[in-house]
Amino acid sequence: MKNIALLCDSSADITKQEAEELDIHVIRMPITINGKEYIEEETIFDQDIIEALNKEEQVKTAQPVIGDIVKTWDHLLETYDEVFYLPLSKALSGTCHVAIGLAKQYNGRVTVVDSEYACYPIVKQLLAARAMFEKGYDCATVKKKLEEETNMFAILIPETLTALKNGGRISPAAAALAGLLKIQPLLKVDHGAIDLVDKVRTLKKAYKEGIRVVTEGINPEEYDWMIIDAYNRSMSDELKEMLEEATGQPVEQHVFKAVIMSHTGPGTIGFGRIKKLKY
Asked: Nearest CA to 96 among 112, 84, 109?
């Protein structure tokens, strides 16, 4: 069996300790606060992001530098036969497109998934990839299965609209009006893109509607389920029970780390499902 390195970027919400324990390599992404650049999990950490967002400072993320991607691949190929890279969704970042182009220079030794994934589902799919490699699948076959036979769908419910407003994803006027009218948006993540799916009047209604939407019209047994929170574990614990009751399936809990939280803000809750692969 070939020795294949599993690689993602830090939009996968994976800490250095988790990456080491799971033997997954991570390209850490840049984050800027008021124009000053940091590297997630190296020179800036989750609590720093929370503090900056609470102060309504300008927090932005950027895709990994091309030179860092190439350097990482070259380093891994010194000890591995191949690299299998699952980046952030192509609908949310230019990294995927750039990496697919760069991989053509590596004579088949680097495989890049044409990704529609974000957050911890990236880690989940990399672990599935490893299981397939152990069964004898090659990188091209695993890439095809991830691109064609599975998908991720999630509902995101931000606790406030502050981060979305400061990041330019909604206008200050719209955020102010939503706050005045107590309008709570439900955002869906489908085919890797984020879009508005509904608006309700309270967070409590938003959570109930989020569970309804994410479980509607599918067989829960065909999916892996998870709930991800941006340092809102008490609510996550409560909603985990509700989601398990609605699906009849176990629900994993994870945390939104710095990169995703920079866009959605502290307190955000996400309900997610991933179509199970057959292999």
From this structure: 112
Q: Pinpoint the residues of the chain covered by CATH 3.30.1180.10.
A: 152-275
Q: In a 3-state reduction of DSSP, which class is residue 233?
A: helix
CATH number of 4-29+64-148, picked from 3.40.50.10170, 3.40.50.10490, 1.10.8.60, 1.10.10.1100: 3.40.50.10170
Strand-strand pairing, 110-112 and 82-85: parallel
Backbone dihedral angles phi then psi of residue 175, each to the nearest 5 degrees: -65, -40
- Indicate where the chain has its CATH 3.40.50.10170 domain(s): 4-29+64-148
The closest of 131, 116, 102, 119 to 156, measured between CA atoms, is: 119
pLDDT tens readout for residues 198-231: 888 888 999 999 999 999 999 999 999 999 999 9
The owner of tokens 């009751």 is 245
Q: In CATH, what number does 152-275 get?
A: 3.30.1180.10
| Tokens describing residue 161 | 């609209």
CA distance 10 to 222: 28
**Out of 9-13, 62-66, 179-183, which region has the weakest mean confidence (pLDDT)?**
179-183
The one-letter amino acid code at 201 reads: R
Bridge partners (DSSP) of residue 61 are 31
Distance between CA 227 and CA 252 in Å, rounded?
6
Is residue 230 within 8 A of residue 255, CB to CB? The reply is yes
Question: Any idea which of 125-139, 169-183, 212-226 has the lowest mean pLDDT?
Answer: 169-183
Instruction: Report in angstroms the alpha-carbon separations of 205 from 87, 178, 182, 200, 241.
Output: 33, 15, 12, 7, 16
